[in-house]
Amino acid sequence: MSEKNIGSVALIKIGKLFEEKRKALGKQYKSREQFIYKRSDELFGSEDWISLRHLYNIEHGKNWVSIEKLIVLADALEEDPRDLFAEIVNIYRDSKH
User: Fold this and answer.
1) What does each C-alpha distance from 7 to 27, 44, 50 come to in angstroms?
2) Do 43 and 75 form a contact (C-beta atoms < 8 A)?
3) Exposure of 24 by Cβ count < 10 A (0-12 exposed, 13-18 middle, 19+ buried)?
4) Percent of the chain, pLDDT > 90?
5) Where are the alpha helices (DSSP H) in 3-60?
6) Which positions ≥6 away from 52 have C-beta within 8 Å?
7) How far apart, in whole angstroms, are the C-alpha atoms of residue 36 and residue 6?
8) Number of CB atoms found within 10 A of residue 90's CB
9) Is it the case that residue 7 has pLDDT exceeding 80?
């Protein structure tokens, strides 16, 4: 499998991981818009913390998530950033096989 295909498969699986974790927070976070808006109020002092487009692209495997954004997303998802990173690494490694 080519490196590009491995990356594509891994990105899609990682995106699904983020989407599943967001939806697991409860019905009020099912939509990306509500998740961004509510988490902004609840955790980030009503500050912009991620755009709808960026979250969409992450969840659909179109973009890798930066370390900075991973930490912020982990907070929003009520996850330890180290544990979330470990899950991402495992998905990436498993995609190579």
Assistant:
1) 31, 31, 23
2) yes
3) exposed
4) 89
5) 3-24, 32-43, 52-59
6) 32, 33, 36
7) 29
8) 12
9) no
What is the arithmetic mean of pLDDT over 6-25?
92
Distances (CA, A) of 21 to 17, 30, 47, 51, 79: 6, 10, 22, 18, 9
Q: Compute how many other C-beta atoms are within 10 angstroms of the C-beta atom of residue 2.
A: 7
Helix 32-43 vs helix 67-76: angle between axes, to the nearest 10 degrees?
A: 90
User: What is the predicted pLDDT for the residue at 2?
Assistant: 46
- pLDDT, tens digit (0-9, with 9 covering 90-100), for 38-74: 999 999 999 999 999 999 999 999 999 999 999 999 9
